[in-house]
Amino acid sequence: MLTKLFRWVRRVVSSRIRGAFRTAQRTIYNQRVPLKVLAARRNLLMGTAVSYTALKSSPLYVRTLCQEYNLIAVENAFKWLTLRPERDQFAFEQGDFIVNFADANKLAVRGHPLVWAGALPVWLQKGAFSKDELAEILHTHITTIVRHYAKSIQIWDVVNMALKANGDLSESLWYHALGANYIDQAFQWAYEAAPQARLFYNDYNIEALTPKSDAVYKLVKGMLERGIPIHGVGLQAHFAFNHHPAIRDITANIDRLGQLGLEVHITECDVSAPGMIRASASGKRQILRAQAAVYHDVMAACLQSKYCTAFVTWGFSDAYSWQNNAHKPFHALPFDEHYRPKPAYYGLHSALQESYHSVL
Ligand code: G3I
Predict the structure, then answer these.
(1) How far apart are CA 306 and CA 343, in angstroms?
(2) Which of 29, 213, 236, 264 is the most exposed place for a label (fewest CB within 10 A)?
């Protein structure tokens, strides 16, 4: 009897303590300055990729998004697979919903991507089009979309992931049909459709100093010398809690691109933590701390260069991440699946705060 009573008291007390701890955490979170406010003090846009499904269905998703961010990237709604179901058909529904949401909530938008070898519809992949037909298809695509969103979207990833790890051009559909010139051509067409927009080349594994980032440097330098309208480079920054480049190398890479006259965005940052699934409680805490340090360092690398003008994570809640699948939640983002800020969130937050104090 006494043991039962003791267990009951222990259960009640520990649940009260847990409840009080959660309330205290929420109070601290509610009282802190949002990421977008801290970032704005350093003239940095704070962004996240958005999921159309989550935006439509989760009020908590929307609330957290609007509270912390002032820039959104369109994760999938502008991909050919979504937007161009047939050669003569554009499906603007998802894109329009996201862009109207952004306009209503005063969020800037990164349009992504106009040209990519991934997420292509079957009609395009299997179409056996001639060079001229593909050029026409691409021209129509870029012109139609960029014009459709000209009022709301001022930043476009015009070409996404066009290079291999060794820096050579990937042998994509576009490359095969149109040759190396397709990149210049795509930027030129995007510029003609919206001369005021800022046009980016976006890729992964080009954050620091590597053969691939050397190749991107050479590519964009050549474009500028040829008078091609390119304004920036997007560094995707998909990292892991135990694997990421040195901060000084990221900053050095941003600086060399900036010195060409380009701006740089961190466009898809996330820090995967696959080990979380099997780790013990203390192992989980260690992984979350390591993940927070990576977010902190990548943000610090961006803040150390005056050319880094936006920091975007590829989603913000572990509830919606491209890295997740049914068996592998990768816990890669700054908020957990219940929209509670993780140590990763505070990693970003403290990097922003430190940098503000250091420039005062
Ligand atoms: O919407 C369908 C759903 O109806 C279906 O039931 C489900 C079954 O698999 O698939 C859903 O579509 C998936 C879509 O994401 C939405 O979740 C596609 O299969 C899946 O391929 C697609 O993956 C996206 C991937 O790009 C390919 O387009 C990821 O969400 C997206 O985060 C990812 O983003 C890329 C960037 O564009 C470029 N840089 C790398 C980054 C990560 O791969």
Answers:
(1) 26
(2) 29
CA distance linking residue 272 with residue 356, whole number of Å: 27
DSSP characters for 133-183?
HHHHHHHHHHHHHHHHTTTT--EEEEEE--B-TTSSBP--HHHHHH-TTHH
Give the three-class secondary structure for 320.
Answer: coil
The predicted model scores a pTM of 0.92
DSSP summary character for residue 310: E
Phi, psi of 76 (to 5 degrees): -130, -15
Looking at the DSSP assignment, which residues form a beta bridge with residue 111?
Answer: 156
For residue 268, the CA-to-ligand 1 centroid distance in Å is: 14
Regarding the beta carbon of 268 and ligand 1, being less than 6 Å apart is answered yes
Tens digit of pLDDT for each residue in 126-177? 999 999 999 999 999 999 999 999 999 999 999 999 999 999 999 999 999 9
Q: How far is the CA of 330 from the centre of ligand 1 (A)?
A: 15
Per residue in 92-135, pLDDT tens? Answer: 999 999 999 999 999 999 999 999 999 999 999 999 999 999 99
